[in-house]
# Entry
Amino acid sequence: MIEVGIVGGTGYTGAELLRFLVQHPQARLRVITSRGEAGKAVAEVFPNLRGHTDLVFVPPAEAALASCDVVFFATPNGTAMTMARALLEAGTRVIDLAADFRLREASAWHHWYGMEHAAPELLEEAVYGLPEANRAAISAARLVANPGCYPTAVLLGLMPLMEAGVVDNTSLVADAKSGASGGGRNASVPLLLCETGESFKAYGVPGHRHLPEIRQGLAVMAGGAVGLTFVPHLVPMIRGIHATLYGRLVSHDTDLQRLFEERYRDEPFVDVLAAGGHPETRSVRGTNMCRIAVHRPQQGDTAVVLSVIDNLAKGAASQAIQNMNIMHGLPEATGLGAPGLLP
Amino acid sequence: MIEVGIVGGTGYTGAELLRFLVQHPQARLRVITSRGEAGKAVAEVFPNLRGHTDLVFVPPAEAALASCDVVFFATPNGTAMTMARALLEAGTRVIDLAADFRLREASAWHHWYGMEHAAPELLEEAVYGLPEANRAAISAARLVANPGCYPTAVLLGLMPLMEAGVVDNTSLVADAKSGASGGGRNASVPLLLCETGESFKAYGVPGHRHLPEIRQGLAVMAGGAVGLTFVPHLVPMIRGIHATLYGRLVSHDTDLQRLFEERYRDEPFVDVLAAGGHPETRSVRGTNMCRIAVHRPQQGDTAVVLSVIDNLAKGAASQAIQNMNIMHGLPEATGLGAPGLLP
Amino acid sequence: MIEVGIVGGTGYTGAELLRFLVQHPQARLRVITSRGEAGKAVAEVFPNLRGHTDLVFVPPAEAALASCDVVFFATPNGTAMTMARALLEAGTRVIDLAADFRLREASAWHHWYGMEHAAPELLEEAVYGLPEANRAAISAARLVANPGCYPTAVLLGLMPLMEAGVVDNTSLVADAKSGASGGGRNASVPLLLCETGESFKAYGVPGHRHLPEIRQGLAVMAGGAVGLTFVPHLVPMIRGIHATLYGRLVSHDTDLQRLFEERYRDEPFVDVLAAGGHPETRSVRGTNMCRIAVHRPQQGDTAVVLSVIDNLAKGAASQAIQNMNIMHGLPEATGLGAPGLLP
Amino acid sequence: MIEVGIVGGTGYTGAELLRFLVQHPQARLRVITSRGEAGKAVAEVFPNLRGHTDLVFVPPAEAALASCDVVFFATPNGTAMTMARALLEAGTRVIDLAADFRLREASAWHHWYGMEHAAPELLEEAVYGLPEANRAAISAARLVANPGCYPTAVLLGLMPLMEAGVVDNTSLVADAKSGASGGGRNASVPLLLCETGESFKAYGVPGHRHLPEIRQGLAVMAGGAVGLTFVPHLVPMIRGIHATLYGRLVSHDTDLQRLFEERYRDEPFVDVLAAGGHPETRSVRGTNMCRIAVHRPQQGDTAVVLSVIDNLAKGAASQAIQNMNIMHGLPEATGLGAPGLLP
# Structure
């Protein structure tokens, strides 16, 4: 039984971690911290967990995190980097769902996140936790940087094209759309139902923090720097990301459908639709699945990839548990097998 | 292993039955019928089930239903009553999620559903499948009439009051609100997103088919006829029912909170909130749970009960599986243990 | 031309006042205040107003409110009561969209709003601005207390019954449902799309601030105290209130349909549906209209009234403008004539 | 006073035409046809119009359309082409909101719409009703092909770039998102709230009927054929289109912000946001406005244009009225001046 701790469990990724962990047959949730809700029962904050856990939020300072086998950070950016070293030294493995260890360069982190990195010496060791790209490294990792939600959808959608070198890497376009839970469970006017409901907009066009993360991931796959335009949008719904990805084909005789099917044949959590398909975000709601379709409209020179995930699940919590499973030698789908909720 | 058949699996209750059954450790789904989708893979109609079932819809005439241990009818009203007898005679148990066997009187059925009843001789045998009221009878039943969605929410909300005789039974009010999935997966203008989205309305005020079903259930609990005003409303959301129930207290010294807690102490799927609570429908989304709070505003003479369920789950599919578990001597919560999806 | 000022224009009722006023042919919006957004263009905060106004928010202290003919307060509760006297003394009429002057008794205000009333001497003078009840008094008023959103829907729905004395006044039930804009444009977790979307709940069952306001209004109509149970609910939509009202008939030979039609025959903003109707909130979206249907289900002893308004319009801003029109001798519908947005 | 007829007024574009026309000071709606709803009051089908019109739907055969000054077709594709000639010969001007006269080539129409064109001789005369491109021709036209919703958003977003020749015309990308009302008011499972709510998907990636219309329009602007990838998506909301447009810059010293501002300086219904802006669809809800922002992320070689309209208004009904105003020499904004409904 894996002994698990969670730091910062009152946001949506924390809630989703809890939902998966209370059902996980090989994990035991021992401790969960919160500054704001310390002393309150978890099930009081998240009433869907009534009857599923008796856990109570504890202040971070009082949490026996170092006695856990693995600790998840579901904190704002900038917290895990201050606590990770001590945990690692105590022999506890760390999976950070925030951005602290995603970028390889401390300078890039400083540029995009506006903070000096507190543990730059850990950046090299940290493994980017995208199992479909880094499974072996994850299995041996002490410190996993769980990917961002947009990066997960975009990287899985473009990986076969990058690896096969069939599109022009200088002019990629990732037009991505996210439900409002990507904005977190924070008191904020722009995320009110009355502000985001019945409306649609782009945001962060001049530059979004997931851009360098996506570029970094694509560069590894492509074996060199890529040119990417990334535009995120806010969808009036709770969960789900849909990435629509455009690449200009440099090789016109590749069977794109077959390329994707072969690349993901053995992946338990990537599902390539039949040719002509259009994945819906609701088909992956609450699951660790990524569903992908690839098109070449009018047999022209543009490949269009449609990639959907649940931003809180494969884009955060369930991918973190997939990583935990890999790190602990469990079957990768342990605790992640339920189908999505539809309708 | 229970061998299961489903008749009419392309609506929302069918989809929800499928979602629960593919995860049920003691049930094996053998056959599912559909006229309209015969020959199509289940996972093509419900993409959330890709990877979870290879089943293909078959025409009703070709389905080996009689070799199943139990058959669920997720059909429109009026179908199960024409097929139930043959199945029962073959030794197959039947759980009807439609209304065919809910009313005790064939004449009432004719009045409210506008059809002659095709199997009136089965009405007496049929057991009303509300486990919290009829557990023993269900366990021995061959034919279970699974309760309607509104009746489930209303009956569980009023049962402690009826049994204790603490409210005036002549002037009950049930103001109930349902998500749009209660209207089914049918091509219909009034259920379009553009018609039901961003709006709220009552419907069926002159008389809704669930009214006689609720009255019949209350009468059993109260030991005599009751006077009930029932007003259903349509909420711009997918899943969930919230019943707000009003009764005039005839006894003012009953501790209502304690009454409810004691009545439901041993019920695995009824959760009484602490005093002062307000249950949200999302807290039970996708689950078999009913959450209830009871109030006596300003210590006046009116009891107000708030009762929430997921209309497709406890209001239909998962309650049907709860009944199946009871009928087969399984632990009642088998396959029904996952927490709700929140947010 | 009426010279208009608005105090506190950055909430939803402020936004709605602005939307109506920029189209009003007899009003000129001269000044609008905001502490938080002072110096910012109105159209920057509310982009739907780009091209419709060049106004800039000014700090309250710098606003020449006393030179306006009428000042609307779209402020939190407790502000208007500190500023009204000075304006009235300067000859400016005041319409308060908050609750400061709605309750006749300062002690009741203190009880429900938790503040000492700052201008109790004005309470008697203040006219409750429900035109259908108080038209004559409004036309002469210096100080109008614009009704709350729930009270508007409930009072208009029950007024004919109260005045005619046909229901038992001791056991009224008002089950009311509101879109999320009733909660205001404030940074608040419970009003996030991810918290209120796809869910439904009651709130404030033990006691909501609109209860004493409704009771007071009903008592005037009924000529004596009434017993009312009021339960508000939150609907996952932006605008709209639906009140479902229940009264036990004490007189069974009244033609309810005719009673309502006659009571509202000359009212420009109350529309009684034909017998058997079910009004939808969307039919009044963005308008000053209240639509009502009255039922007597199964010819029983309970009257059920369905009453819908737009909480931001007839429940706040457009009713305030209706009051302004009455106070200035304009045709009552001036600037309020546009039909609702559907779908 | 312009005498107006509408053919096919029971869909969403018909509803929106009605909403605008009942408020139009220079138009008088004389006749509206419907096969399915003949004999029914318009206000019964669209309850927001109660009190605004007494019109009753009449069967097409009985409608005195030829005595109108102008007739709008709000019909399915393929109807206007069978009726237009007779009306034109009677001296009635025709504005078709369907696709019948949008494509210049009858063969293209046949290819994309699967029907032989019934009036190919009118295609040359028909004027494409995008005022910002064709104002002079519209003013003299007898027959106007009102643009599609996606084409309006995309063409207005790309026009300045096309005319200035600053992007590579062979690799344009239009990633467009529409609310569900674009799918019409038809009984259809995929447009149910339970199917489109809380989900997001692309559709028609292999080829959507608006693709040839957009290409044709761009070609005129660019002075030659263009290469365009067009991917439409379905947003879980009622109204609104957001087009995100990508073009590779071939000239890097153009000030894009200034280019857009100058191109649209005198346009009453195109509003260019300040640099760095992100338009929201709700800001144009119910209005004839198109709001646009142009970006050049990280000063790279890709121009990103964000263009929003209300698909039922500027994308259909209000643009048709804008065309009517132009055709009749009225100020272009007559009857189109109200600000959008926000929130």
User: Anything to note?
Assistant: Chain A has a mean pLDDT of 97.
